[in-house]
Automatic annotation (TrEMBL):
<keyword id="KW-0496">Mitochondrion</keyword>
<keyword id="KW-0274">FAD</keyword>
<dbReference type="GO" id="GO:0071949">
    <property type="term" value="F:FAD binding"/>
</dbReference>
<dbReference type="InterPro" id="IPR023753">
    <property type="entry name" value="FAD/NAD-binding_dom"/>
</dbReference>
<dbReference type="InterPro" id="IPR015904">
    <property type="entry name" value="Sulphide_quinone_reductase"/>
</dbReference>
<keyword id="KW-0809">Transit peptide</keyword>
<comment type="similarity">
    <text>Belongs to the SQRD family.</text>
</comment>
<dbReference type="GO" id="GO:0070224">
    <property type="term" value="F:sulfide:quinone oxidoreductase activity"/>
</dbReference>
<feature type="domain" description="FAD/NAD(P)-binding">
    <location>
        <begin position="29"/>
        <end position="144"/>
    </location>
</feature>
<keyword id="KW-0285">Flavoprotein</keyword>
<comment type="function">
    <text>Catalyzes the oxidation of hydrogen sulfide with the help of a quinone, such as ubiquinone-10, giving rise to thiosulfate and ultimately to sulfane (molecular sulfur) atoms. Requires an additional electron acceptor; can use sulfite, sulfide or cyanide (in vitro). It is believed the in vivo electron acceptor is glutathione.</text>
</comment>
<keyword id="KW-0874">Quinone</keyword>
<dbReference type="GO" id="GO:0070221">
    <property type="term" value="P:sulfide oxidation, using sulfide:quinone oxidoreductase"/>
</dbReference>
<dbReference type="Pfam" id="PF07992">
    <property type="entry name" value="Pyr_redox_2"/>
</dbReference>
<dbReference type="GO" id="GO:0106436">
    <property type="term" value="F:glutathione-dependent sulfide quinone oxidoreductase activity"/>
</dbReference>
<dbReference type="InterPro" id="IPR036188">
    <property type="entry name" value="FAD/NAD-bd_sf"/>
</dbReference>
<protein>
    <recommendedName>
        <fullName>Sulfide:quinone oxidoreductase, mitochondrial</fullName>
        <ecNumber>1.8.5.8</ecNumber>
    </recommendedName>
</protein>
């Protein structure tokens, strides 16, 4: 909630009452970045080299910054959770101002943001980049939070529950191993099935596969949104005897009975109850509450930051840009997409700062390394048209050890050392070299 004096200030016309003695003054920055995750941190680093770093503020409440793509490997026992996180202080550019608070209200008509904390003055900006990510809504599934305290229920999507995934795979005895995909947009749409393939491999390695019925219950009507990779994944699930139930959405967990209830999205009002020995849940996700309640025209009706999908500039406010999972860009929400967006956003914001038109064009590039075992990966890369946009001159729909090595051993270094320091705009340049200038 805004304090009374702040409400008075933001509701009044700019200037007059704003600077009066009875209302708090705002802190002013040339550039404010909201969110210090993959997108916010990378953009702050880029601009800390372009403008006076003292004129940049990052609003970010978290102590820790996580390399979330690592959690697939943590759940599968290939990496430790501790390796996936670093202190926020260590990853944000040193010379900028870190406001360790939450943004609790956006006032884009007045270039102001209210932040959490008692008696905080509002933050005023000339330019704004919004990168708040997407909210996990575990509480939208009845019984789930309590179920996480019981054996077999886990989720790679949170540092609170990811260690439980490995525990559940290792502790598996006999029965259904169920992996879910919710009925909302999510980040890394491949992750719900990556951990299923890893669990399947583990069961095979440890002589448990004949006792496991591996099931993928997904709300989607397809296994993957890009046909080329979906075809390859259907071959994999057939070969590995994995049961896929489309349009099947988790609504309730009854941990005492180890049962999970799924609604049939094609037959409203009907549901099916599954017994489980292991249940890996990908939670429903959506815009952060503040975006739905206190962001005005910054967001579209669903609560996602409303951007021009090519320039990444806001559709209404020319001094506002956005990137990553909090936006309504119609591509798959991944760190790889964020990398591609960072290059375009920084070019376009820099143009706007210098009175020029934003000419950089984002093509919707995104990538999902679909880990399919302890040594293989299908490296999906595609664009807004859902057509493959592959970096390497090989068929990336084929399971590959090189792609696995890239995901497990190379990408973390690229993320921590290049991307967060503003030096990684995705692999477009390599793609052009690998394809010798031909193709996209
Ligand atoms: P985030 O990195 O989530 O950062 C958002 C930041 O905003 C957070 O630090 C948060 O604290 C902050 N914030 C939130 N609300 C507020 C507020 N009100 N005020 C201020 N700050 C706020 N991507 C890939 O490319 N490849 C993969 O293999 C891959 N695998 C994944 C596997 C899993 C299990 C998960 C969970 C994700 C995976 N991703 C992968 C997705 C990737 O991690 C995200 O798409 C990426 O982190 C999005 O970046 P972002 O900056 O938009 O959001
Ligand atoms: C990528 O650029 C990226 O961003 C840092 C990821 O996030 C961790 C990825 O998982 C992938 C696959 C890419 C794309 C990079 C290449 C070299 C294909």
């Amino acid at each position: 909630m805004l304090s009374k004096s702040t409400q008075t200030m933001v509701l009044s016309t700019m200037g007059k009452r704003y600077f009066s003695m009875s209302t708090p003054k705002s802190k002013h920055f040339k550039l404010v970045v909201v969110g210090g995750g993959a997108g916010g941190c990378s953009i702050a680093a880029k601009f800390a080299r372009k403008i006076d770093p003292k004129s940049i503020a990052v609003i970010e409440p978290a102590d820790m910054h996580y390399y979330q793509p690592q959690w697939t490997m943590v759940g599968g026992g290939m990496k430790k959770l501790e390796e996936s996180g670093r202190t926020m202080e260590s990853v944000l550019p040193k010379s900028i101002t870190w406001l360790k608070e939450k943004a609790v209200g956006f006032y884009p008509d007045k270039n102001l943001i209210q932040i959490s904390g008692k008696n905080q003055e509002p933050i005023q900006y000339d330019y704004l980049v919004v990168a708040t990510g997407i909210q996990l809504n575990f509480n939208q599934i009845k019984g789930l939070i309590q179920a996480f305290d019981t054996p077999g229920v886990c989720s790679n999507y949170s540092p609170l529950y990811v260690n439980k995934t490995l525990e559940s795979i290792k502790g598996f005895k006999k029965g259904n191993a169920i992996f879910t995909f919710p009925n909302t947009p999510i980040k890394c749409a491949g992750a719900p099935q990556k951990i299923m393939y890893i669990a399947d491999s583990y069961f095979r390695k440890h002589g448990k596969r004949q006792d496991a019925n591996v099931v993928f219950n997904t709300s989607l009507g397809v296994l993957f949104g890009v046909k080329k990779y979906a075809d390859a994944l259907w071959e994999i699930v057939k070969k590995r005897d994995i049961k896929v139930n489309l349009r099947t959405n988790l609504v309730e967990v009854i941990p005492k009975e180890r049962k999970a209830i799924f609604e049939n999205l094609d037959k409203p009002g009907t549901s099916e109850t599954f017994d489980y020995e292991m249940l890996h849940v990908t939670p429903p996700m959506g815009p952060h509450d503040v975006m739905k309640t206190s962001a005005g025209d910054l967001v579209d009706p669903a609560g996602y930051v409303n951007l021009n999908k090519t320039t990444l500039q806001h559709v209404k406010y020319q001094n506002i840009f956005g990137l990553g999972d909090c936006t309504n860009l119609p591509t798959s929400k991944t760190a790889a997409a964020v990398a591609g967006q960072c290059g375009i956003l920084s070019q376009n914001l820099w143009s706007v700062m210098n009175g020029k038109d934003p000419l950089g064009q984002y093509d919707g590039y995104t990538s999902c390394p679909l880990v399919t075992s302890y040594s293989t990966c299908v490296l999906a890369e595609f664009d807004y048209t859902s057509q493959p946009l592959e970096t390497f001159p090989v068929n990336q729909a084929k399971e590959s050890r090189v792609a696995f090595h890239l995901k497990k051993d190379i990408m973390p270094g690229i993320y921590w050392n290049l991307m967060l320091n503003g030096h990684w705009n995705g692999p477009a340049a390599f793609r052009k070299i690998a394809h010798l200038g031909f193709g996209k």
